[in-house]
Amino acid sequence: MSFFYAALIKGDWLSFVSGASAFGILFFAFYHFKLLVWNIKQYNLYKKTEAYQHLIQSNAEVTLMTLPLTFTMTINVCFVLGALFVPKLWSIVEYLFPFALIGFALCGYFALKFFIDYFTRLIVKGDFDFANIIISHR
């Protein structure tokens, strides 16, 4: 039995705090996955538009690096859910880490791919638009 379950069934103030924390974790994890699916669908639709073509030819192309970051955070959400809700997970965690490392490596690969595409376009074409940079002098 995990520390979480032991704290939950104790029946004191810590049980309430543990239960509220678990509820919050489940709520935000559900919300994360719900928004992740929605964002993937919207991104796939967006890639077919002319606005996307304009994006990948502008300074804002670097914002595509948020995609691998989002998937990396999804791996972290899965870690939290597993650590909290899967009893005795830490007794076999060494078998799960290679899969996590593969996931992180894939996210890193795509982050580098997006950045190299962006940086290569800037170096080859030299079309960084300095006029569109807003600098505050306050």
Structure description:
The protein has helices spanning 3-8, 13-46, 50-55, 66-85, 93-125. Helix 2 packs antiparallel against helix 4. The protein is built from 5 helices and no strands. The longest helix is centred in the first third of the chain and has 34 residues, at 13-46. It is mainly α and 138 residues long. The chain has one domain.
What characteristics describe this protein?
single chain, 138 residues, mainly alpha
Briefly characterize the structure.
The chain has helices spanning 3-8, 13-46, 50-55, 66-85, 93-125.
Topology:
Layout: H1 3-8, H2 13-46, H3 50-55, H4 66-85, H5 93-125
Helix pairs in contact: 2-4, 4-5
Helix content: over 70%
* Integer-rounded radius of gyration: 21 Å
**Helical segment count:** 5
Sheet having the most strands: none
Q: Which structural class should the secondary elements be placed in? A: mainly alpha
Low-confidence stretches: none
Mean of all residue-level pLDDT scores: 88
Q: What shape does the CA trace take? A: elongated
Percent strand equals under 5%
Number of strands: 0
Order of helices and strands: HHHHH
